[in-house]
């Protein structure tokens, strides 16, 4: 067992705490529903693969303010007029709410709630920042991984990117999301320890350079790791390195190419290896790879068995951010419940607690989604959001990561191929239900007409 | 005092540990020098602002393998033939080496070592991954922050991006780097607690939406935070919201615009506020801003006093990764020291332990850098790398972050304006010294000629 990565409630934006103080001081007792969703898919993505829920739930179960943290807050000038009772409240702060979510490993689209929190409004607000950063990042990387794995057409992809990730923790979370998205493993040992992900490693240029002779470095490494050695062959001259391996009579599990023209070199290396009877020696490729370069290299006949993908995967380099938001959709106070929506010029949100219904075609493939109200019922539509936490405790134990990965593989295979295209995927059909549209209109009337009246004053 | 963010030695790539085992089993006693540098500046950056050294040093002082972690490694199939002595070694593993580095807050360029580790080769190798991810990410964000601050032309910039950062830790590290790079503060409260960074907050749309009447939400918030309230005015109708503030007789510290046309709206809001005598009420702008949109808005006359920059800053969105590497440059064994270099087709490295010498023009501004050997001496050149750790302990206490921020401000002001241009900055002149060039040739002869000879065999 490992500790949760995160439990401090201070991992939040200051306004969550000032709003909390204002609600507390004004005795606002409402419970609120917030939904987390992506406003728009990036142009380069036909779908997103939901990930990060596990770390979000872990955080919700563990979240606390320590006494030191509360003292810190008390000393901040902004809280100068806030009374002791609020800080006493923070001392006992726990997340006691309910969470609905689409399971990790599900393909999702714009406007679909990935998660809904129903909780006293202060609790729902304080956890916003951490929920957003947990789900956004892993969803980005899991999606990128699914694309890279698709491009590799059945060849194994290993995540290699911790060194270029946005700090050490981001590296470990990226490894998790990449595995979930279909990678066969990671180079990150902490991710192996913490999440049970298979770990892979080869050899660095420094090891080759630490010996006066390249062949000697290969011989020494192979002696210690006779069944696992993947020798790095591009430190000086790639083809000469293969000749050395053959001359020394080594039978490495693999060789790794990290520079040069992948197509030409991999074919030449394969030819030399096969000619020497090393048909079992696999070829690993690495070096600034992504889904596009992998697809192109394979199309041109590159003789690669495994890909190591680092920077591009761990930072989701072409799409390093997602427009995820966490919006108030309903407020329950004194037995009455009112739907909420926002009508800023360019940032409208849909009100009410929602459910996503997914429909299948005659072959069992996904055909369209309807975003409806939670209480709606579509007998042919699969409801995607499930209640995963009640009273601040999970409703069921966390699934093993390997099961989540299997779910992702299965669900992705139900998404018709055009939506999985690397480039110019058509938009998957997602529509609000008539009932949701009607609710939006109702809220618009209630909220905007009086405002317009006031302006006309 | 807070705990180091990171101390587990497992935050490393598997090959670092397999190489460590191979060195150990082969009784390689060498001490090695590795240098960390950026191969190439991204096209959109004229310079980088070094950051993240503090977290790297904290990690080096704290790094350990726990007994659980060692048991985990022992169970991995790849280590099946590795003897007990290696795992006993890991139990006592500490970083005992020396570190040279360019101080945080210094402008740096491609090929310049940001950091050098001199240590027993196993130690130098095990810490590679964490050093790279610590320095790369903060350097990216500090650089982005410096650009945004430059674009804002003296107006305050607050970092708002934790929710969109690559996980929660990345958000906190981004806040640190952004402050170092010139932001006046962050919304991230943990960053305030941990690093003493000023925290800023406003109000979310949800707070406005939680009340039936927008004006009532403003009134309630202003009552609790009379001197600090920054009211969010774009939930329904921006200009109508300003009218409500005026009619209610509120005197908020500021108002925030988060959507709509920034130039037109900010001017109209300023006009209304001034007309009502609210000349002290400041205008905050947020909403997918970056250095380019800020520069354009100000050029078009936007009446903005403070900018909140989130996603673009915390992910360095246009340049979310840097090609940082950590390369073996020298090996010392049995009293002899040998320089090392790599000659892969597209990834050459310079051998030897280096120093960066920075030259100033007649006005004291930076004019050019020479990357030379450590033992060289340029009386007019300022040597940038300093010894910051010896025997695994810092040579001096960590400077306060506010001092590092001040150093960054001062050093950036010495970089001539063309290199700080947001677009199409010319390349700052950096050249290797003749002695370094000569060493490269010498190593090339030693390493490549015999290899070529072997191939000709």
Shape of chain A: globular
Q: If strands are numbered along the chain, what order do they take across the biggest sheet of chain A?
A: 13-12-1-5-3-17-18
Computed over alpha carbons, the radius of gyration of chain A is: 26 Å
As a percent range, the share of helical residues of chain A equals 25-40%
Return the CATH topology of the largest domain in chain A. Answer: nicotinate phosphoribosyltransferase
- In the predicted model, the low-confidence regions of chain A spanning at least 5 consecutive residues are 451-457
**How many structural domains can be distinguished in the coordinates of chain A?**
2
Subunit organisation of the chains: homodimer
CATH superfamily of the largest domain in chain A, please?
nicotinate phosphoribosyltransferase
What proportion strand of chain A?
Answer: 15-25%
Whole-number average pLDDT of chain A? 94
Tell me about the largest β-sheet of chain A: 7 strands, antiparallel
Q: With helices defined by DSSP (H or I, 4 residues minimum), what is the helix count of chain A?
A: 16
Using the 3D structure, state the CATH architecture of the largest domain in chain A: Alpha-Beta Barrel
- The N- and C-terminal alpha carbons of chain A lie at a distance of 63 Å
Please give the number of β-strands of chain A. Answer: 19
Which structural class fits the helix and strand makeup of chain A? alpha/beta
Which descriptors apply to this entry?
homodimer; 457 residues; alpha/beta; nicotinate phosphoribosyltransferase; TIM Barrel; 2 domains; seven-stranded antiparallel sheet; six-stranded parallel sheet; 19 strands; 39% helix; globular; disordered C terminus
């Amino acid at each position: 067992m490992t500790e949760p990565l995160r439990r401090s409630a201070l991992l939040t934006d200051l306004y969550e705490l000032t709003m909390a103080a204002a609600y507390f001081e004004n005795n606002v007792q409402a419970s609120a529903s917030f939904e987390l969703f992506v406003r728009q898919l990036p142009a380069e993505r036909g779908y997103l693969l939901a990930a990060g829920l596990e770390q979000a739930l872990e955080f919700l179960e563990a979240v606390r303010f320590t006494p030191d943290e509360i003292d810190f807050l008390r000393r901040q000038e902004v809280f100068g007029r806030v009374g002791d009772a609020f800080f006493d409240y923070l001392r006992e702060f726990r997340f006691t709410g309910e969470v609905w979510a689409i399971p990790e490993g599900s393909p999702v689209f714009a406007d679909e709630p990935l998660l809904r929190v129903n909780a006293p409004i202060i609790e729902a607000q304080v956890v916003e920042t951490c929920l957003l950063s947990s789900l956004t990042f892993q969803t980005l990387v899991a999606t990128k991984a699914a694309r890279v794995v698709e491009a590799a057409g059945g060849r194994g992809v290993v995540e290699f990117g911790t060194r270029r990730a946005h700090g050490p923790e981001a590296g470990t979370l990226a490894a998790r999301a990449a595995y979930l998205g279909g990678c066969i493993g990671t180079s990150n040992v902490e991710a192996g320890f913490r999440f049970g992900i298979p770990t892979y490693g080869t050899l660095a240029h420094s090891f080759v350079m630490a010996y006066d002779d390249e062949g000697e470095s290969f011989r020494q490494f192979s002696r210690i790791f006779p069944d696992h050695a993947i020798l790095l062959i591009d430190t000086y001259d790639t083809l000469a390195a293969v000749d050395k391996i053959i001359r020394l009579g080594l039978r490495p599990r693999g060789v790794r190419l990290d520079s040069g023209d992948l197509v030409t070199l991999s074919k030449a290396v394969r030819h030399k290896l096969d000619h020497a009877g090393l048909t079992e020696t696999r070829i690993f490729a690495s070096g600034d790879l992504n889904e596009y370069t992998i697809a192109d290299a394979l199309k041109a006949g590159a003789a690669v068995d495994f890909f190591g993908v680092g920077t591009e995967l761990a930072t989701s380099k072409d799409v390093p951010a997602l427009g995820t938001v966490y919006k108030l959709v309903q407020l329950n106070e004194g037995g009455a419940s009112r739907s909420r929506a926002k009508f800023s010029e360019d940032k409208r949100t849909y009100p009410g607690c929602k459910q996503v219904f997914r429909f299948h075609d005659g072959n069992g493939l996904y055909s369209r989604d309807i975003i409806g109200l939670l209480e709606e019922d579509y007998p042919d539509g699969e409801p995607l959001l499930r209640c995963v936490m009640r009273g601040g405790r999970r409703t069921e134990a966390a699934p093993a990561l390997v099961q989540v990965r299997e779910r992702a593989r299965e669900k992705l295979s139900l998404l018709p191929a055009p939506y999985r295209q690397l480039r110019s995927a058509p938009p998957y059909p997602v529509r609000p239900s008539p009932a949701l549209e009607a609710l939006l209109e109702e809220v618009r009337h209630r909220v905007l007409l009086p405002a317009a009246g006031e302006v006309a004053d």
